[in-house]
Amino acid sequence: MKKLTLLGGITPRQFLKEYWHKKPLLIRQAIPGFKPALSRDQLFEMARRDDVESRLICHFGKQWQMQHGPQGELPSLDKKGWTMLVQGVNLHDDKADALMQQFRFIPDSRLDDLMISYATDTGGVGPHFDSYDVFLLQAHGQRRWRIGPQKDLTLIEGMPLKILKNFQPEQEFVLEPGDMLYLPPHYAHDGIAVGECMTYSVGFRTPSYQELGEGFLQFMTESIELSGRYADPDLEMTNHPAEISRAMLSRVAAELEKIRFREEDIAIFLGEYLSEPKPTVFFTPPARPMTMERFTQAASKRGIVLSRKTRMLYRGKHLFINGESFMVSRSDKAALTALADGRRLDGAEIPQVSPDVLEALFTWYRDGWLELA
Ligand code: SIN
Ligand code: CO
C-alpha cells in the first residue's frame, strides 16, 4: 500500500493501526499548495440555500448564540468572533467531492460529509468534543488548535451548543493552509481563528446501537410473516376476568419467539440504512432525459458516473443504492461493484450487463442518481 502525503508519509494501513480511534496526528502540508474548493462568497451563497444545512455561531462578549440556516444577512466581516459552518459541501461541489474521495481508504459506510467553516478573527465553536473521528484541514488563513485527551466531558448547561465545562488542553498548534489535524472520537478540542480563516472537516458516521436497533426492528416489520391466529380451545373459567392468563402469555410468547433474523437480514438492513441519503438531499433529474435506447448508446460510448449525492454500497450479492436494495446476479456483480467502488463505469462495460441492470441504470439516470460521463 502506498505511503500518502495526505497522512504525513505513512500508509493508510499504518494510520489505521496507530492513530485511528487512538491518538491525534498533526500533518504539516498534508496537501501541499492547497487551494480552497470554494471562495468565502461561494460558501456564504451556499449557506443561503434551503437544501444546505448550516449554522451561524456568534461568540460576542461571553455569550454564545447559534442560528440554523438557511442564513439571511451575516454579521459584518469586520466583526470578530463569529463563524459559519456549512455541512455536506461535497454533495454540492465537485472540488469538495474530489477532496472527500481522497479519504476513501476509509469505507463509504463510515464517511459522512465535508463540512466547511468560515470564521472571522477569534471565531470558533468553543472547546468541545465530537463523538466521531475528524480530519481538520486548514483551507485558508490560520487557526490555533488546542487539544487534550481529558476524560471529564461535562458540558456547560443551558448553552445552544456543546461547550466543555473544564477544558484542559495539553497541546497547541497553529495550522496553515494545507496542514491537517486528525482527532479521534471524544478528544477535546478548540479551534480559534487567527485572523479570517476557513477550515474543512471530514467527518465520519457513528450510528448509535440504539438508533441501529430501532431502525432494524422497523425494517423487520416489513419482512416478518407469522401464520395463524390466537386460539384457546383449552380456555378455563376465571374468577379474575381482568387478568391476562399465564396460558395466554405462554402461547403468545411461543409464537413471537418464531421471529428470527439472519445475518443476511442485518446486511440488507445496514445497506439500506447506510445508503439512505440525508433528508435534505434532493436529486436533480436530467432536464430532457434521453430515451432508453439513446441512453444505452451514449452510456456505451462515454460511460457513466454516479451523482455526487448517490450513496452506493454492496455486501455479497446485495447491492444498495440511495436506500434501496437489489439482488445481483453473478454475471452482473463485477460491473455493479466496479461502479460502486469506482463511482464510474467505462462505456465498454455497459453492453455486458443484463437487460435488468441496464433498465435499472436507465431508471437511476432518469432519477438523477447517475449521469453520462
Ligand atoms: C470548525 O471548523 O470551526 C469546527 C470544527 C470542529 O471543531 O469539529
Ligand atoms: Co469538533
From TrEMBL:
It comes from the Bacteria. GO terms for molecular function: 2-oxoglutarate-dependent dioxygenase activity; metal ion binding. Pfam families: JmjC_2 (PF08007), WHD_ROXA (PF20514). The keyword NAD does not apply. Its cofactor is Fe(2+). The keyword Membrane does not apply. InterPro entries: JmjC_dom (IPR003347), NO66-like (IPR039994), ROXA-like_wH (IPR046799). Residues 95-221 form the JmjC domain. Keywords: Dioxygenase, Iron, Metal-binding, Oxidoreductase. This is Cupin. It comes from Noviherbaspirillum autotrophicum.
